[in-house]
């Protein structure tokens, strides 16, 4: 398990900083901007190695007007996104944010993200803790 996370850190190139000692964040990335859109999405892997649940309640970045935790859900045969106001990460659980699943949704992106750029985020938890992380922008081609 820990070996896998470490491998992701090295392979993903994402820089991860951990505020809450019990939370490990790795493989932080986002897609380059699609011309003409002002929304974006960021992805990462988060692990809770503590004995208590960790509750993610939000995120933000200076690179966008607003950021929300989102999930894709299938409803009436259609993939839709919905906001997740409180995301519980159980003890020893690892959640992978990825296309088609959990993601950080960015609204009002201030300038287009280009491959190789980095974008800083702050994750907010319900106990007042925060964690900073840096996403690497990947090409979509
Ligand atoms: Cu979304």
UniProtKB/TrEMBL annotation:
Superkingdom as given in the UniProt entry: Bacteria
UniProt protein name: Copper(I)-binding protein
Pfam families with a match to the protein in the record: PCuAC (PF04314)
InterPro entries, per database record: LpqE-like, Lxx211020-like, PCuAC_sf
Organism taxonomic ancestry: Bacteria, Pseudomonadati, Pseudomonadota, Gammaproteobacteria, Alteromonadales
PANTHER family: BLR7088 PROTEIN (PTHR36302), COPPER CHAPERONE PCU(A)C (PTHR36302:SF1)
Coiled coil: none
